[in-house]
């Protein structure tokens, strides 16, 4: 298509393949989505395949894709909470700055021989955060 202007372009690297999603506009003002798969061949050349979906059909294609996407369980993971959100839900103080009071309490619990898992429940922080803070405060070096 001659005299086509590009509106927006995204590329998705996928191993030996790259997918290009381009929104373009023809000289006549018609918009379309061009999806191109570019595959690197053994001889270092590229094989490309494209489809164009014109604006008049884009809603039908989007609806059809939406109906099919539930067949991909990995997409459901995108809807799940992020790891950070999950940690915050489990530990009220996760990702918050440590206060002097918490450092004192951590030191006290460490000196009492409490394990990171126990301290985690008391301070409402991830066990990994407890271990990291013990290291940062050098509690093992100071109190053995």
Question: Can you tell me about this structure?
Answer:
By secondary structure, the chain is an alpha+beta fold. The chain has two domains: 66 residues, Roll (Nuclear Transport Factor 2, Chain: A), CATH 3.10.450; 54 residues, no CATH class. The protein contains seven helices and four strands. Strands 1-2-3-4 form a four-stranded antiparallel sheet. Strand 2 and strand 3 form a beta hairpin. Helix 5 crosses helix 6. The termini are far apart.
Tell me which CATH architecture of the largest domain applies here.
Answer: Roll
Shape: elongated
**What distance separates the N and C termini?**
74 Å
Overall mean confidence score, pLDDT: 89
Helix/strand-derived class? alpha+beta
The total beta strand count reads 4
Write the layout of secondary structure elements.
Elements: E1 5-14, E2 17-25, E3 31-40, E4 46-54, H1 55-68, H2 73-79, H3 83-90, H4 100-111, H5 116-123, H6 127-136, H7 139-143
Antiparallel strand pairs: 1-2, 2-3, 3-4
In summary, what is this structure?
With 144 residues, the chain is an alpha+beta fold. 44% of the residues lie in helices and 26% in strands.
List keywords for this structure.
4 strands, 2 domains, 144 residues, four-stranded antiparallel β-sheet, Nuclear Transport Factor 2, Chain: A, alpha+beta
């Amino acid at each position: 298509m001659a005299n086509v202007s590009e509106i927006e372009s995204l590329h998705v690297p996928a191993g030996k393949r790259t997918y290009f999603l381009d929104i373009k506009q023809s000289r006549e003002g018609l918009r379309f989505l061009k999806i191109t798969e570019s595959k690197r061949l053994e001889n270092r050349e590229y094989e490309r395949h494209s489809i164009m979906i014109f604006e008049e059909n884009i809603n039908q294609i989007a609806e059809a894709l939406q109906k099919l996407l539930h067949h991909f369980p990995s997409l459901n993971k995108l809807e799940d909470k992020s790891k950070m959100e999950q940690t915050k839900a489990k530990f009220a103080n996760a990702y918050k700055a440590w206060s002097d009071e918490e450092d004192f309490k951590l030191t006290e619990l460490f000196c009492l021989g409490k394990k990171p898992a126990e301290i985690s429940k008391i301070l409402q922080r991830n066990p990994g955060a407890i271990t990291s803070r013990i290291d940062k405060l050098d509690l093992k070096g100071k109190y053995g």
